[in-house]
Specification:
Layout (H helix, E strand, L loop, with lengths): L7 E3 L8 H7 L9 H18 L5 E6 L2 H12 L5 E6 L2 H12 L3 E6 L8 H11 L3 E5 L1 E2 L4 E2 L6 H6 L3 E5 L18 E3 L12 E6 L1 H8 L12 H8 L11 H17 L1 H21 L3 E2 L10 E5 L7 H12 L1 E5 L8 E5 L7 H14 L5
Parallel strand pairs: 1-13, 3-4, 3-5, 5-8, 8-9
Antiparallel strand pairs: 2-10, 6-7, 9-10, 11-12, 12-14, 13-14
Helix pairs in contact: 1-9, 2-9, 3-4, 10-12
The protein binds pyridoxal-5'-phosphate (PLP).
Length: about 375
Amino acid sequence: MLSLPVRRLHGPGPSPVAPAVLQALSLPCIGHMDPEFMRVMNEVREMLQQVFQTENQMTLACSGTGSAGAEMLMDNLVEPGDRCLIGVNGVFGGRLAEKARRAGGEVHTLEAEWGQVFETDRLLAEIERLQPTVVALVHAETSTGALQPFDQLAEAVHRHGGLLVMDCVTSLSGLPVLIDEWGIDAAYSGTQKCLSCPPGLSPVTLSPRAMEKVKRRRSKVNSWYLDLTLVGDYWSGSRAYHHTAPVNMNFALHEALRLVLEEGLEARFARHRQAHEQLKRGLLDRGFSYASDPDHSLPMLNLVNLPAAIADEAAVRRRLLDEFNLEIGGGLGKLAGKCWRIGLMGHGATEESVTAILDAIDAVLPAAG
Ligand SMILES: *Cc1c(COP(=O)(O)O)cnc(C)c1O
């Protein structure tokens, strides 16, 4: 049988998976139309509603990773010719823009320096000017460590009949994601970040307003697999066979969500904050500096510039992996080779993890200690 080392996962995801989640993953497979699996789907939906803090009926785990959820929302919400405003301040904003373009949207991008966020006034002015049908932004940009405020945008978007879309792949269950309170119309996440589940499902939620847009579409959704009307009927209502849900991944997500709610969202957010503060102190002491806007830094993803003692960053990360089983992320896109991305996600956001990370860094960098 396949044999693998046990890694400490502190990159941009996947994150460490709790033993109970791995146990759920290895439960006996059952049929996807089995009444017991329907119960699992219902409970996954109810728990997702709690974690998203929403009453949206259309809340489900899209089959596929976070990128599938992003594509599900863009394919269903953007019709050919729809004007879209997409914030691009990192890799994932760029991907959202590309998905909206492929769906036929007339895409207008708003750019910001990597590591910075969009000021609310600037966003509101663009929304007034363009009156877009879809406004999409990344809440937690995993490529840059920046946290985008979302709480002041919905009113302006809705005033012109638009929809507000959020990528909360990295933030969900590590930071407050208040879908209903912030007036978010559609959001997608992923299982392998702060939910601490293996990759494979993408939680999505859509407001009644967003579903109204889907119902009124003039053209069919390009993707059959991600067509929300079909997938929605599979997850609720008629339970009509559409595709075969990854059964055991849904078991794993069920257990991951149960653990999140057992801990409590507020306690979980506080744990992520505390681990981040501890890591930040340790890194600053060792000559690292933060590369993201200090007022808008993510707790679960730390983007740092390297101390001068690190000349070949890829070789140092390789040593951390080989000698300490520690995975740390390199820079993505234009930050490749320049920065590290240190993840403290879900099950990995603990004092014990931070100590292990700092000890390993000390061991490979005695001069920087
Ligand atoms: C990880 C991530 C994605 C993509 O998710 P995949 O699971 O890799 O498909 C999208 N957006 C953000 C912000 C992410 O961190």
